[in-house]
Sequence to fold (460 residues):
Amino acid sequence: MAKAVKRAFVCNECGADYPRWQGQCTACHAWNTITEVRIASTPAAARNERFSGYAGDSGVSKVQKLSEISLEALPRFSTGFKELDLVLGGGMVPGSAILIGGSPGAGKSTLLLQTLCKLAVGMKTLYVTGEESLQQVAMRAHRLGLPTDELNMLSETSIEQICLTASQEKPRVMVIDSIQVMHMADVQSSPGSVAQVRESAAYLTRFAKTQGVAIIMVGHVTKDGTLAGPKVLEHCIDCSIMLDGDSDSRFRTLRSHKNRFGAVNELGVFAMTEQGLREVSNPSAIFLSRGEEMTPGSSVMVVWEGTRPLLVEIQALVDHSMMSNPRRVAVGLEQNRLAILLAVLHRHGGLQMADQDVFVNVVGGVKVSETSADLALMLAMVSSLRDRTLPKDLVVFGEVGLAGEIRPVPSGQERITEAAKHGFRRAIVPQANVPKKAPENMQIFGVKKLADALAILEEL
Fold:
């Protein structure tokens, strides 16, 4: 039976669809970005034959009760990296579609090559490369000292051919590196365009669900740090994770932005070495690498990342401004939040910084978005303003309201326990977060208002 060809007009910038061609896209207002796309609709019989095994031998879907669906058929399996398992929600789920993005040189291909070499020892895997030759991948694996005897490789950019080969090889895990260079024959546009990325990702996701293959797709990022391609790319996949890291730092952070099988905002930390990426079992030790001599303007806070606490050092520098409009610079924190805390500190703490430049930085490049860092930030600014050093064994966390009240934060007990494990012996926390039984050899100060915290700071 001949394929029925459908025509659509799609904007290459935003992915908007139109019934006919026009010069300007009314969605993103870009000119000359609408191109014709021809989509061949495959007959139902051909689709069932192509993806046989989805709903039995007949290939016909049937209605089932939710209680009748067995969960034993989808057991998670480990990737070989505990940090990666944590970000994925406890391991990889068969039939899941995972998208990993990151800036060039962050280590996406290196991490996936290490993962598949480990998994290939106990299961069948397939690494599909479209950007590099097989010799280049082999050279990297040899340089990293990875076991390469069991890993299957394929150099291909056609989605139809990749799925046909995968249906014959039947791997349990397949990597697509990268989705921006893949193409489908039925889509009349160049690889990397909105239409090609959208149709390729949808085809691979459907193949993963029907065949029970866990597919990991590598995605490029734009200059502003977002994933390249249409937004529907993140909607159709099950898990979206980002690998971040500065070029001058050896540490990489892996964070989940979407996960249908676990918690979001989970954080995994890796270190880039000559032997590839290595897990960091104690991330708090990285961000607490302070010197022996303490300086004013430094405090330690406990932030909650995903399902675990993380100790981070925050620094503040308050200096007399030589400008009519003092500067307010925040790195790793929200700029508007800093302005609010300065106003609260003036109104309810009696400290005037209107003529001072205020610079705030979170050590280690961590981006803190939760409000539990409010109290630690304010005490760091007070320490810098008064040129008084905070105790080295002091940890602080708590949300500060506009009326100067100290509000409790979630998981207060776990934060205090994590601080005690790293040798902190004193803590300033909201009164509602004071545990009934404090950790051994740890003194906890519960505060209800900002004035209470400033009074305790005078006594320390």
